[in-house]
User: What shape does this take?
Amino acid sequence: MDRLIEFLFEKLIPFLLKLIGSILLLTILLQIFVRFIMVHPFSWTEELSRFSFIWFCFLGSAYALKKNLHLGIDYFYKKAAPATRRKMDMFIHLIILFFGFLLCYYGTIMTQISSFQKSPILRLQMSYMYMVLPITGSFFLLFSGYRLYQIIRKK
Assistant: This one.
């Protein structure tokens, strides 16, 4: 399990974030260049950058969860006793597990519903955009479940 978590969060997700971030940056730069220099903008760059941004944000949130980079107020956490901290960590990861389950469940429903819709300009199935919901939810479930297991096992 350690190797799977390490592969996903140290190799696959950072690679995808770099790839999608590059696509996002290049499409926005192309849009700016074409709009102001050539005065005739491409219509597809806005839609591709929107899709890239959505994927980048969701995958980035999964990566931030693993690296513990999400914004948090830890004033009370730092003042708490170790046993209380452990309970707080368990509670937090249970909430994240629940949220990951919701992302998977409703994301799968949204992906199925949107499989017959096409994006207006690129003509891609909208399910490709919504597919990031269950994927991110799976990452949340995997990492939070593993972290919860580590907390319980540590005692």
Summary: Helices lie at 2-38, 44-67, 75-79, 82-113, 127-130, 132-154.
